[in-house]
Amino acid sequence: MSVTDPRQMNEAFARAFNSRNIENLLALYEPDAVLRVDGSEKDLTGLAAIAAELGQLLQAPASMTSNNNFCIQHGDFALLRADWEIVADGVVVANGSSAELVRRQPDGCWLYVIDHSAGASAPRIV
């Protein structure tokens, strides 16, 4: 599941989710990455915490699509936004827009540093 173009991260995440294999999902994250899954201030740091959260998500008998909305690359970093949805039995059970920061690794592959699954869906603060 290695990603050599940051514009492919979100599609790779959906493929990893649809594989139903937690190792495929974890392979997309740096060891000390941060995951935030909702609008709270709760950050999950490191692969063990991320595995616990994503493992729960994999329990849902559903499939995911995730489309890259934009990718802004600067050197070894890229800022991403994806529009995603999770469908079970033909019904959308969850959807949103994520915000992510990915980093190019020494081997040329890209991994998540920060993944906020609802970051681009958050309501405006006025």
Count the helices. How many? 3
Count the E strands.
6
Q: What does the average pLDDT come to?
A: 92
Beta-strand percent range = 35-45%
Order of helices and strands: HHEEHEEEE
Radius of gyration: 14 Å
Q: Which residues form runs of ≥5 with pLDDT under 50?
A: none
> How do the strands line up in the largest sheet?
2-1-6-5-4-3
* Euclidean distance between termini CA atoms: 40 Å
Computed structural class: alpha+beta
Task: State the helical fraction.
Answer: 10-25%
Biggest sheet architecture: 6 strands, mixed
Q: Shape, please? A: globular
Q: Main attributes?
A:
126 residues, alpha+beta, six-stranded mixed beta sheet, 21% helix, globular
Furnish the topology, listing elements before pairings.
Elements: H1 9-19, H2 22-26, E1 29-36, E2 44-45, H3 47-57, E3 63-74, E4 77-88, E5 91-104, E6 110-116
Parallel strand pairs: 1-6
Antiparallel strand pairs: 1-2, 3-4, 4-5, 5-6
Explain what this protein looks like in three dimensions:
This protein is α+β, with helices and mostly antiparallel strands and 126 residues long. 21% of the residues lie in helices and 44% in strands. The protein has a six-stranded mixed β-sheet with strand order 2-1-6-5-4-3, with helices on one face. It is globular and about 40 Å long.
